[in-house]
Amino acid sequence: MRSRTSDWFETKIRYAKTQEDGTQKNVTEHYVVDALSFTEAESAILEEMKVYISGDYKITDIKPAAYHEIFFSDMDKDDKWYKAKLMFITLDEKSGKEKRSAVTYLVQASTLPAAVKNITDVMGGTMIDYEIANVAETQIMDVFEHDSDPEKHKQPENQESENKEQENNK
Description:
- This protein is an alpha+beta fold.
- Helix content is 24%, strand content 45%.
- It contains four helices and nine strands.
């Protein structure tokens, strides 16, 4: 398990998806992208989805996510996403009363019990007292993290061979 804190946007995109039998079906799918603004979120989802879309598409919704941290699983079978609401418990030193703060996370897992286990694995390494208030499966298909290597996108692959050719001609 690894966790990543960032500004996340939930997006919905409608497009004609090719089914297993070869037919086209209009679908609306939910994705999460790492972005700093609505414009960047729109650009990111289009960039990620362009290999799957071969016709008309429409981004039907973009909204900031209610969570800032995502727990990613390393297991291939973990293909679902769950929203988890945790209640952090602190003591108010002045009044001596318990104070509860709600925090939402997105968790990758294959089943609901696996999602709870993943939360426990990540949170078990912290000193924070917490309770799991709610865990629910989402419609999210995938999460796209921001590419941390911008150099990778600056030059198209064929540009590299053109540059070598120009050097050889000098």
